[in-house]
Design goal:
single chain, five-stranded mixed beta sheet
Length: 342
């Protein structure tokens, strides 16, 4: 069975599990004063509430509010006793994120966003993984670095991209991470100065990083000269780490960058690479999606775009010949999901 998953940080055991990346503020510590957070208790409609990643002791979650607000987040072991609170951020925003660590393994938690009149939902942590710890790596995607001072209707926070990338780098550096994979669209328009700013930020990572090229990165011709500054001569390549094999594929159709495809040349290269490493557990990384992602069809109908590689069926048929391929990581869809094929 193959796993198709776009998301954040992997911790590799003899099997794969995800872990969170930031911190938790709990009521066991100093009491949090929320009496002055007037914006946080106003009613707002929430959409795209997503469990970004969940592990045995952590969860990352994001959501979008209908208006700019300063949301706080209550959670606990009982829907009647939500006794832990993450305080509201300093600045109001429509785009919200929490990362909680220190949870109990294989446990159901209940949570509520903002106020008592909002519904209570739940999530469950995974059981603690069997096997020996091997290594951890971070995955981030669709940075869309831009100097624009805007936010798109679909949640691209262009005016915050430099600050967000700096925060991502700091969060990764704070963890026990061996390397980082970036799943494409590092830049918004593929301009040389965008690549320059992204490269400067990524070079502050403490450990190596491996970029995947996305359609926005190829919007202009700058990538031809700028890509090598990110440490890779080619946009399709592979590398090994601690007995595992990682493959990075260029899935952008050069004549039409809005369409994903694995060309015949790349498919032939991929099969040769898989044959040469057939005894090693392998993870494949590309920008465009391979499997259907719940909720994406509606968005793509609005945008009039196809988020999948054109030859995704043939690609999945080929993967069935290689049982050592355990996961495929993609970006592009701006949604978090884990899907499987038999």
């Amino acid at each position: 069975m193959k796993i198709f998953v776009p998301f954040f940080i992997f911790c590799l055991f003899t099997i794969i599990a995800s872990v969170g990346a930031l911190y938790v503020a709990d009521n066991d510590g100093p009491e949090i004063d929320i009496t002055n957070i007037s914006d946080a208790i106003e009613e707002a409609n929430y959409t795209r509430v997503e469990i970004v990643s969940v592990g045995s002791d952590s969860v990352d979650m994001s959501w979008v509010s209908s208006t700019e607000s300063r949301c706080f987040f209550d959670y606990g072991l009982s829907p009647f006793v939500l006794n832990s609170t993450l305080p509201a951020p300093d600045l109001p925003t429509k785009y919200h994120w929490v990362a909680i660590k220190g949870l109990n393994e294989e446990t159901a938690y209940h949570y509520r966003i903002n106020s008592s009149s909002n519904g209570i939902n739940n999530f469950s942590t995974f059981p603690l993984d069997a096997g020996n710890y091997l290594f951890s790596f971070a995955v981030t995607t669709d940075i869309h670095w831009s100097s624009s001072n805007s936010i798109s209707d679909f949640g691209c926070m262009y005016k915050y991209t430099d600050r967000l990338l700096a925060d991502v780098v700091s969060a990764i550096n704070a963890e026990r991470i061996n390397f980082t994979i970036l799943l494409g669209d590092l830049t918004n328009k593929g301009l040389a100065y965008e690549f320059d700013n992204v490269t400067k930020r990524l070079n502050t990572l403490d450990k190596p990083f491996y970029p995947v090229i996305g359609n926005h990165d190829k919007s202009e011709g700058a990538w031809v000269t700028e890509w090598a500054r990110l440490g890779q001569e080619n946009t399709t390549y592979s590398f090994n780490f601690a007995g595992w094999h990682f493959i990075v594929l260029d899935s952008v159709n050069d004549p039409n960058t809005e369409q994903g495809i694995l060309t015949d040349d790349i498919m032939n290269w991929l099969q040769d690479d898989l044959k040469a490493h057939k005894t090693m557990p392998t993870i494949i990384c590309l920008h465009f999606l391979v499997n259907d992602v719940p909720g994406l069809a509606e968005l793509c109908a609005i945008l009039g775009s196809n988020p999948y590689i054109e030859n995704n069926k043939g690609f999945k048929v080929m993967l069935n010949n290689y049982t050592n391929v355990v996961a495929v990581l993609s970006g592009h869809g701006h949604l978090n999901s884990i899907t499987y094929i038999p």
